[in-house]
Known about the structure:
It holds the Pfam family Sel1. With 439 residues, the protein is mainly alpha-helical. It has helices spanning 19-31, 39-50, 54-67, 75-94, 98-110, 118-130, 134-146, 154-166, 170-182, 190-202, 206-218, 226-237, 242-253, 258-273, 277-289, 298-310, 314-326, 334-346, 350-362, 370-379, 387-397, 401-413; strands at 8-10, 16-18.
Amino acid sequence: MDRALKMVYYDDAKVERDIFAQLSLALRHFRGVGMPRDEVATRKILDQIHRQSRAFAAICYGFMRSKGIGVAEDLGEGDQWYREAAYWFREEALGGEGISANNLGYLYAKGLGVPENSETAAGWFEQAAENGSVSALYNLGVCYLNGWGVPQDDELAVDFLRRASDANDPSAASVLAYLYLEGRGVKRDPSKSFEYNLRAARAGSVEAASALGYALGVGLGAERNIAESISWFEMAANEGDTYAQANLAMYFCHSPDLKLFNRGWTMLMNACDQGDISAKYQMTQILIFGVAHREPDYAAALDLAMDLAELGHPGGYHLIGVMYEHGLGVPVDMSRAASWYERAARKGSSNGQAALGRLYAIGIGVDQDNIMAYYWLRMSAPSSNSQAYREMEAVRARMKDGDRKKADRYVNDNPAPRRGSFGLKSLEKDVFKTGKRSV
Length: 439
């Protein structure tokens, strides 16, 4: 099951906390992943969870044992503690406690201390929702979105998520933001997506704060605002969000200030060493295009881009296409460029879609085709002031009425490529550009 599901508790201020998001943050503090190593911060998080109840204490011990936090790693003993947590959650759930029923469903979804069973998990989420658990409404929405233990149903997923969001669940608002951006279960609306992300971020969603940084950086659903973009990225980065850290580092790397550049470059290097795919993507862009304090290195860039491509990252496909189109470290080869752009486009990369549409519009690397040009440019969902939008409008203007109708039918019959099952932390965020350089 995907990690988008959540188990919750309420802290001393009665604020809902996602327990495994908090435990993962404690682990990052303990290992120094994406942030300085800080055992005091680790201990503070674990202590807060431990004192909630016997069930939560058992979850805490299970995680510590499974990950080797302050104790020897022992998966078997970790699972024993998860079994104890399941016992206490079950006792409380049978007594009508909605949160405990939700958390027991989570354990079945993940197979922690109990056999993994998506149908059983969904059943406990339903019971939890009936007993007033807002988190269970969210979890049911995610289940229907992915068809986990229930029939896949986007519209029913949206209904559950809206009910949770209306009850001030930030995770539900964050998912609705994603759905409005993708046009899944709802009509695509980037501005509505931005509104839901803003609601979620203000309520404490790290994922939404990172998404706002991206949206404000590229002008998606709101006017482009670099200062606000940096502010939201910093908020998410301080909570250990590696995507936000990678993009924040990208801003710093484009600064003419050498100190800021060095700070950003160090952040990127550290994130790359930890295997963060967003950081590798950003590093590849710098190595291709260069910045004030770093010359291009095409050989290193191609190696990194190929690594990204092997991982199935759409940005890697797109950047390889860029290198072949412009002869950056490789011979100019428009057919190869078009092939890489198409792979990126079909993986949902907006930059790949825009690049492929442009090639169809001018007939280089592919046969000239206004309908395919319009389709891919439109799939890139360009903002109204972007180059891709102007190219899309130019293609449509030169079409005859019959071709415009064919293009509209093709768009309706071929919706934008999806990116697989939904998961908050596994969303593939496409190319982030600071505006300093574009190709």
